[in-house]
Amino acid sequence: MSLRKGILKDFNTGDYTATVQMVSSYKVYLEDIAVARNIPAAEMTGGRKVAVWFFDEHNAREAVVIGVFT
User: Fold this and answer.
1) Is 11 helix (H, G, I), strand (E, B) or coil?
2) Chain CA centroid to CA 11, Å
3) Separation CA 42–CA 56 (nearest Å)
4) Each residue of 37-57: b (16+ CB within 10 Å) or e?
5) Integer angstrom CA distances of residue 18 from 2, 4, 22, 37
6) What is the pLDDT of residue 26?
7) Using the 8-state DSSP alphabet, how is residue 25 labeled?
């Protein structure tokens, strides 16, 4: 498991998923990443920094956004 930093590019309020650009690679965008439901939708604005928890580093579908910060 690992925790990584990303930048929020898009947020889907319907299914509570996000598109995130990983800070470690400016060409990598992860789409349809689950977002923790305790994060208010109003906090999920484009350009904000996010914390992404990877349960399996080789499978992006096993990741979740667990926090937002500035």
Assistant:
1) strand
2) 9
3) 28
4) eebeeeebeeeeebebbbeee
5) 18, 15, 12, 12
6) 79
7) -
Query: Which pTM does this prediction carry?
Result: 0.91
pLDDT of residue 27: 84
Residue 68 in tokens:
């937002």
Q: Residue 52's closest CA among 22, 10, 14, 24? A: 22
User: Which H/E stretch holds residue 17?
Assistant: strand 17-22
Please provide the DSSP assignment of 32-56 as one string.
Answer: EEEE-TTS-GGG--TT-EEEEEESS
Give tens-digit pLDDT for 22-54.
998 878 899 999 999 999 999 999 999 999 999
